[in-house]
Design a protein that fits this description.
- By secondary structure, the protein is of the alpha+beta class.
- It has 6 helices and 7 strands; from the N terminus they run ααβαββαββααββ.
- The strands form 2 sheets. It has a 5-stranded mixed β-sheet. Strands 1-3 form a two-stranded antiparallel sheet.
- Helix 2 runs parallel beside helix 6.
- The chain is elongated and about 65 Å long.
- The model has no long low-confidence stretch (mean pLDDT 84).
Length: 199
């Protein structure tokens, strides 16, 4: 409720700062203060959006989802998609929340200028979704706190991976950061979902 109440006055503040910047010359001493305010307001906006997403993660609405069709949509996001499941395979989950969780992983890679591979398999009665990227990877410190709230090594809100974890937990699933392989760089995340989730 607080997040929704803050959205309108925050949007007004962002607009007012943007208008004020339009009236400032490049050498105006007030310009740097306005630019800093604009950056801070943008960060607050992202934080509120992340908190609202977390609230939604607590209330999944599961439906039967055709896996092949669901993951085909990710091809438009400039990511390589490899789906290896029998044609017609359906899994029960909240398609909006799972889609957003996967997008969070892909967005993390894009911030590093990395390319990603999204692969989907069935294993031991579960749907396994894996996102691999060829970015710089995560430091040991970042790996230890990857799914904790407000921990970010990329300058974000620190809630993206926490959201992923909460969504998977709400589906009786698991999100984990895989151990790096000596032969490759980058990061690898795996999301594991039961084939039939009772929510």
């Amino acid at each position: 409720m607080l997040g929704h109440e803050l959205k309108n006055p925050l949007a007004s503040a962002i607009t007012n700062v943007a208008v004020a910047l339009e009236f400032c010359d490049e050498d105006d001493p007030r310009r740097s203060f306005l630019e800093r305010s604009s950056t801070d307001l943008s960060r607050i906006t992202k934080l509120i959006a992340s908190c609202l997403e977390l609230a939604k993660a607590e209330r999944p609405r599961a439906t039967s989802v055709d896996i092949e069709a669901f993951f085909a949509a990710f091809s438009s996001l400039d990511v390589s998609v490899d789906v290896d499941v029998p044609r017609g395979t359906c899994v029960v989950f909240d398609r909006v929340l799972i889609e957003r969780a996967i997008e969070n992983l892909l967005e993390n890679a894009r911030r590093e200028g990395a390319t990603s591979v999204l692969s989907v398999r069935l294993c031991a009665g579960r749907l396994q979704i894996r996102v691999d990227d060829d970015g710089p990877g995560l430091s040991a410190e970042a790996r230890n706190s990857a799914f904790e709230p407000f921990h970010s090594h990329r300058g974000g809100t620190g809630l993206g991976l926490y959201f992923v974890r909460r969504v998977l937990e709400a589906h009786a699933g698991e999100a984990r950061l895989l151990d790096g392989e000596a032969s490759r760089i980058g990061a690898s995340f795996e999301l594991s979902l039961p084939l039939s989730c009772k929510l």
